[in-house]
Amino acid sequence: MNTALHAAAGSPLVAGLWFIAGFVVGLCLVRKYGFATLWPSIIAIPVFSLIRGFSPPLEFLAIASVSVVHVAIACLTVLILRSTRRA
What we know:
- 82% of the residues lie in helices and 0% in strands.
- It is globular and about 45 Å long.
- By secondary structure, it is mostly helical.
- The chain contains 4 helices and no strands.
- The mean pLDDT is 83.
- It starts with a helix and ends with a helix.
- Helix 2 (12-33) packs across helix 4 and helix 3 (38-54) runs antiparallel to helix 4.
């Protein structure tokens, strides 16, 4: 394993910024499409987690699949909070 590559590209700051970007995209998707994002989010999490699990670290496919999981997590978070909100 190339540790120099991991140190350069695997920065916690970069990972945190991509998480925030994916989460904001998920929030915007729920605002626009509402409950239509429920099933795609539920299906996307295990599928893209498996893709991430079998792809080499720090490749485009791994990074893109984690970003899709972050978008799905944001969608599900908003949907759960909306459905449990008291009147």
